[in-house]
Design brief:
The chain has helices at 7-15, 30-43, 54-60; strands at 3-5, 19-24, 46-49, 69-73. It has 78 residues and is α+β, with helices and mostly antiparallel strands.
């Protein structure tokens, strides 16, 4: 399972149709939340409202810094 973090990366991979699921931190800024929600809707990707804050989301994905959003990428079929 490959994971990406950060708004810019999540939006880029959503536009490429490579995202399976998006996670948004409970305290993600509204402008980030709105942009990611709209992009996920257009890409028909599930958005999970992570109950923890940005720091907890970062920790969940092994990052030592706050993360507003993260995404699990679709597995590549070989």
């Amino acid at each position: 399972m490959e994971v990406i973090v950060g708004t810019r990366e999540v939006l880029k991979f959503l536009s490429q149709g490579r995202v399976e699921k998006v996670f948004l931190a409970s305290n993600a800024p509204s402008e980030i939340r709105d942009r990611v929600m709209e992009a996920a809707k257009q890409a028909q990707v599930e958005v999970v409202a992570f109950e923890g804050n940005e720091l907890e989301l970062g920790t969940k994905f092994g990052k030592p810094f706050p993360v507003a959003c993260a995404a699990v990428l679709k597995s590549e079929e070989k």
